[in-house]
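To whoever is on call:

I kicked off a structure prediction for a single chain this morning and the downstream step that reads the tokens threw a length-mismatch warning. I double-checked the sequence; it's 150 residues and nothing unusual in it as far as I can see. Pasting both halves so you can look.
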Amino acid sequence: MFERILIATDGSKHSERAAEAGIEMAKLYGSAVTALFVVDIGKEYGPLGDLVSKVADDLIAGIRRNLQDQGEKATKKVAEIAEKSGIVVSRKIVEGYPADDIIRIAKEGKMNLIVMGGIGATGLEGFLLGSVADKVVRSSHIPVLVVRND
């Protein structure tokens, strides 16, 4: 049923809890697991606007390195959780737009389930913040398990 599970992580406690749930499902179903971190290029370039200079280029490169490092740590954490349960995890870090790329990679990898954390924002707060989990749930044709940290 769930031969291939994609665990989307951003390195937060919410994602860690979701990873634990995804790993438990992988144990039950004997699933292959992929841990995914998307370097959000929307956040990376947004604050700079049209600023073009050597300083801006250096700043962008530094931000990119920092986000790649965060991705390494986040996917490594998922792999460590999996290792304790005897599950092998492949790790993937991509640059893009989180919700769109989570869905794209799930489709390309023929995933049967997407597992991710949710911050539990509701009402106006959830509407104003815009939630990656919400967009994935609304847009994905692949089942999505959102694990809240309540």
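Update from on-call: the warning came from a stale cache, not from the record. Cleared it. Sanity check on the structure: The first strand starts at residue 4 and ends at 8.
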